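User: I'm writing a tutorial on reading structure tokens. Could you give me a worked example: one chain, its sequence, then its tokens, then a sentence or two explaining what the tokens reveal?
Assistant: Sure. Here is the example chain.
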Amino acid sequence: HRYTDYPITDILQMMGRACRPLIDASGKCVLLCHAPKKPFYRKFLYEPFPVESHLDHFLHDHMCAEVVTKTVESKQDAVDYLTWTFMYRRLTQNPNYYNLQGTSHRHLSDHLSELVESTLSDLEQARCIAIEDGMEVSPLNLGMIASYYYIQYTTIELFSSSLQSSTKLKGLVEILSSAAEFDSLPIRHREDVSLQHLAAHCPLAITEPRFNDPHVKANVLLQAHFSRLEVGRELALDTAAVLDKATRLLQATVDVLSSSGWLSPALAAMELSQMCVQGMWERDSPLLQLPHFDRALATAAAAAGVESVFDLMDMEDEDRQALLQMSPAQLADVARVANAYPNVDVAHQIEDADEVSSGDTVTVHVQLSREGEDEEAGVPRVHAPRYPKPKEEGWWLVIGDPKANALVCIKRITLALRAKVRAGRAFPCWATVTCLFPPPHPRYPSGPPHTHTRALVAHMAHC
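And here are its predicted structure tokens:
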């Protein structure tokens, strides 16, 4: 098992509440802790607590971001950059903390040079940056993806090495759960028993699970979220933290897969993003996205020939009320969400279609139009009560060839009213065009600064 102590900052905040300003003349704080921890807390209570830099613990991700923004373009730039940091100021003040052998200029220079050399070498091995002529550095696609989504370089390396053209949903969940972002997920006392009980009800079996592993816990919590299983209060808070990180990790996963030109796993990753937002499996009835619907009611609706939200909206009022058997307030909730359910019209046109021949670069104009009651409302919100934060609608526009499992072009967009998209790429003139769209995270409505055009199709989905 792993136990985690309260951070010192949290303890200071709790101690600060022991006395109410302008009300109490004095206050008392009782600190109960493990006996070996007493000297540490006593020292920190009676003496000033030093503030040290942890930049060296996260330097890889920090340096990757600076290379992507071209703040650092050489190893010398990296060394110069570090001389402007708080860590550089603390090196001479507390050299032992940073494993520094001395405080002379030569010692500082050697330490920074070695730190930069090892950091950039690790980033090069992870294929996040390229080092030319031993000095010049430039960003690679994986580094740009990691920097854009604020994920660790070890995670993007894991995605690149683990994702394959044949990866299915189970593999995606396992790869997602193995991300380094979940290393700090706490494992509480005897929580492994609860996780083992939840795992027994998960559809995707976990190979040789160790329930005191935070990555196994992330896997179980994701599957429990999709299955809408009841978990305790603490596990519910952990699930919210996992979902918050999973969304941007899946955005990065889609980018990695589209860079390799793999259509099927990219679509599966988009479906997984939808599953995280709505808290349901991809095979579940779409009606579960509506309020007051459970699996029993969705099964009864399917037996009556109602399998989608639009089928429900097309029913006569009397038939709908007889099927749902809800109170007027509940029916109003269902009507509100159903009326806001996205209905997107897609139209596309190939530029100079009569003049296209095999191997030519082709520009496809795609026009998307979303029906809405309030045209001034901007980007609509997604009804996702099981998601821990508000979510705006967004879409992926994908062009690819399903038979060849080839992804030609991908673009993320948001739809307020209308959106026109240009997609350009060389593809065989006999390729068919379909269309796809699941929504992105609201923080990244326009997508990353780089555009992937490695691979032809289009298809639509809402996350």
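What the tokens reveal: The CA atoms of residues 412 and 447 lie 6 Å apart. Residues 425-463 have pLDDT under 50 and may be disordered.
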